[in-house]
Amino acid sequence: MTTTILPVPTVPGLGLEERNPGIPLDLGWVREVRVNRPAVERRAATLPARRSVKREWQAAWLLRAITAIDLTTLAGDDTPGNVRRLCAKARRPVRSDILEGLGAADLGITVAAVCVYHNLVSTAVEALAGSGIPVAAVSTGFPAGQIPHRLKLAEIEASVGAGAAEIDIVVSRARVLRGEWRDLYEEVREFRAACGPAHLKTILATGELGTLRNVGMASLVCMMAGADFIKTSTGKESVNATLPVGLVMARAIRDYHRQTGHAVGFKPAGGIRTAKSSLDWLILMKEELGDGWLRADRFRLGASGLLTDIERQLEHHLTGRYAAAHRHPMV
Amino acid sequence: MQIAEIFETMTYGPAPEAAGPAREWLAARAPALGLFLDNRMVPPSTGEHIESTNPATGEPLIGIARAGSADVDAAVAAARRAAADWRRTPGHARARHLYALARQVQKHARLLAVLETLDNGKPIRESRDLDVPLVARHFYHHAGWAQLLETEFAGYEALGVVGQIVPWNFPLLMLAWKVAPALAAGNTVVLKPARFTSITAVAFAEIAARAGLPPGVLNVVTGDGQTGAMLVEHAGVDKIAFTGSTEVGRGIRRSTAGSGKRLSLELGGKSPFVVFDDADLDSAVEGVVDAIWFNQGQVCCAGSRLLVQEGVAAGFLERLRERMETLRVGDPLDKGIDIGAIVAPSQLETIRGLVDRACSEGIQMWQPSWACALPDGCFFPPTLFSDVPPAAEIARVEVFGPVLAATTFRTKSEAVALANNTGYGLAASVWSENVGMALDAARAIKAGTVWVNATNLFDAAAGFGGLRESGFGREGGREGMYEYLKPRWPGRVRAAVTATATGREPISEAAGDGSQDGAANGHGASNGRATGGFEATVASMPPIDRTPKLFVGGKQARPDSGYSRLVFAADSTVLGEVGEGNRKDLRNAVEAAHASPWGAMTGHARAQVLYYLAENLSLRTREFAERLRRMDGRPAEVATTEVERTIERLFAYAAWADKFGGRVQGTPMPGLTVAVHEPIGVVAVVADDTCPLLQFVSLVAPALAMGNAVVAVPSSRHPLAATDLYQVFETSDVPAGAVNVVTGNVDLLAGVLAGHDDVAAIWYAGSDDGARRVELESAGNLKRVWIVSRPRRDWFDPVQGEGEEFLREATQVKNIWVPAAG
């Protein structure tokens, strides 16, 4: 296994000035992580109540949320047909009459990426051609990660080869649960190397890590290993993106940024279905990490149904009438 | 602003709470609110009003009635009229009333929250999410106590009419903390809200009347400090409950001295916020925000002294400054505001003065970059002073504003020492991921409430209140209920109790009166030395002179004065001599008490000592009985009974020593809220003449059992029972300093102890005038005072002379909150 620091390739169109190159594993730092769960839960519980965005601000923030969405379909029955529909929605996430009404027609609102299994990558790449919207592939034996390491590397390489610009890997939960931080570090280093120019999002599957301290430590190790993003969940665990978990990960990102100067992105995924919850996540980003983490280069929302609710809220803002989902184009 | 622009800037924008209904409520009552007596709004007899303003804008909101003495009289009279019926109302019926109040608060939650924010300037988020829900919670919780009163507080009864004075920082919440337990216990109330913030009290009284609370049960008199003083001094009030500044509390202590009024005081603080190097620092930063920037820092238990372990201090303060940059100060009605308006311009000036003086002392001050761009109005930015030495004014004085003073420490013991280096003792916050260390610090810090890895958590199920100059008494929980109850003894008011078949000693008003004894008993001793009695060993030899000394620090000590005082027997002959103790002897005794290892011993170990005391006393039963007999001339069998009762009492407190540790509170929080019954510290005990041995032990033993060190002054007339007893102490493994006995002029010594700032509580049995002087002198350090002789007790009666009441007086409740993973 190699631990050398990789060169820093960039991907045009993603707006990333500089990728996190990673740093040598610093176990002292990892073990210093302290997370007090009740205190974190208290902060997470009051955060959405401490800030409120209303009227035009709410509409603008919801548009911003759309631009952070990794529009996702990860189902056993995915076919080229429904993936092409998803990609069409990704290009035009909001009805144009609504965008015009909001004065947002020229903002070039699209989602941040489309996220699919490897088998659908080429379909999505084709469907999104010319849009500038990258395709993300979940990988490394998603969602459980219980496949041989070499197959994980092969899967990454295959997806990158098929045109995926972003790879969402899953970490080996066992490495975290057993405190095998060096093994986790090496594993993620190799995933990063296999990604090449594609961006690496590391899914911690926080619902299976047992403690928030594990979440904090795993976040640090993944960033040290060169993750471009750290991501909460696969969407397949019984508990997915929660604000307390997000808070711990955001604080880890802030710590890492403070210590190394490298900015790592954050992606909550799973269970984010309402416009209100997307605002909560944006508020968490703004409060804990600052305005630099409100855009797609450092913030993503992994979601599928969320978009429809945001559309309904935008229409309500525009018309003052409560909206119906069927009046918005489905995926 | 255009959506496209906001899309780029991602600012928050305004999020105002609609104030329409609250403004309509005010308009319907313009130009002024009245007083609220007997469920009716009435104009004040003075015809005068004070303007209540919105501190965020300066706009006048409505007039507040200024109650005069006739109004206070009328309010107390209304409460008195209602008192008997309300006390007799079955607990279940009172529970229904309190339940209705809780429901009504919830139904009118937003109106109350908006009124509060308009009047006080606190952020709507806080009044909406904290104040008002906690108000409802308090009434729900106390509806429960009303329901359970007859069983859970059997043997207790309501005090009568209670005068309650609440501050401006949590106007409605403090009302609830006071009114709910008072009503649950069966008292009627005259409430005086703060002059800056009276609106929600009147609104609440209206709601309560509409909810069917009987007339006179809750009355509201508004006005300024003069109105409050009238209530405090009103002869028709049985108790004063006050929350506010330490200085005003001190004044109330003095002005109620000798009045017989019960008193509870919840006063100021300078609470420590302790961050150990193994804490979750980011969460601790958020804790600081909740500790000192909650309610603009206008919180009595605000964590205003930040103590950070030196190794992580720089990094912690860096994180804290980053966090301070993102705080938002402004319109309290905006839902996205962290810090609202300071309550009034006068308070703003006080804060500015303290901050300016700290700056001119050369202490390093930091405010966020936006601090210079505050909105117009009564606003002050979050402010951090770092490297603040304990000697600085800003480290000692309660600012009552958004101002934090940070200091570093090296070790846990230094952190505890710094935390305790204050006249106050209200609350503390301890941050560490090491549960053992955190709990150890929580035990060692002197405060009524300690939050572990949390701050400013409140609940009706856990009593809140302080020690030292933060006052005494608790609000909330079982411990808070006792503030509004008194023991109910059958036949409580009586001059004498006849001896029962079991030979129990009568309390006789004449028992201590030496004028009518000698002849009746007919023991004609010529020189005060032993004659007759159990062992008629009258010798032809002169007796050996016995010289009781003072007992200080485990040693017999000659009195500093060099004088002795004569002690007379019942037959007026000289029974002996005791040392004439003075203030220096008491100083030494208090120092010895503080040095005693007693408080650190386990309950089990303390029990062993108390049992051993009883054992050794029993060996000398005859000797003590004979001494008692000679003191007050009672029959030998009664004297023997007193000794036997004393032995029994020692057994009782030996039994209690490991059985009054506290309880787990039912707070709505995952984790543990533990009410720990801690010793108070050094307790002064001043006894009177009745039952000289039994009373002395009845007072000293519970104090000892709970881990206090005692400085005892035995009765003037019969000190020999106590001085004889120290020989028993000496043979019973009582550690040095645990009990100290100083004889002499009781009134003089009581005054010295009451005025001693290192004595935490004083129990006084004696004259009303003596009680008044003790209460007056106690205002210096606001020590707890218990007038044991009010009402007179039958020391032989185990209900009156022993038990839970004594244990409660011997302890203070510390609620330790330990949130655990949810």
Overview of this protein structure:
Chain B: InterPro entries: Ald_DH/histidinol_DH (IPR016161), Ald_DH_C (IPR016163), Ald_DH_CS_GLU (IPR029510), Ald_DH_N (IPR016162), Aldehyde_DH (IPR011408), Aldehyde_DH_dom (IPR015590). The complex is a heterodimer of chains A (331) and B (822). Chain A is 45% helix and 9% strand. With 331 residues, chain A is of the alpha/beta class. Chain A has a single domain (29-323), classed as TIM Barrel. In chain A, strand 6 (229-231), helix 11 (243-260) and strand 7 form a beta-alpha-beta unit. In chain A, helix 2 (37-50) crosses helix 11 (243-260), helix 3 (55-67) runs antiparallel to helix 13 (306-319) and helix 11 runs parallel beside helix 12 (275-288). The longest helix of chain A is centred in the last third of the chain and has 18 residues, at 243-260. Residues 1-16 of chain A have low confidence and may be disordered. Chain B is globular, with a radius of gyration of 29 Å. Chain B has 3 domains: 30-53 and 61-266, Aldehyde Dehydrogenase, Chain A, domain 1 (3-Layer(aba) Sandwich), CATH 3.40.605; 272-471, Aldehyde Dehydrogenase, Chain A, domain 2; 550-666 and 675-818, Aldehyde Dehydrogenase, Chain A, domain 1 (3-Layer(aba) Sandwich). Chain B is of the alpha/beta class. Chain B contains 28 helices and 31 strands. The two termini of chain B are 42 Å apart. In chain B, strand 26 (682-686), helix 23 and strand 27 (709-713) form a beta-alpha-beta unit. The chains are: A alpha/beta (331), B alpha/beta (822). The interface between A and B is large, with 38 and 38 residues.
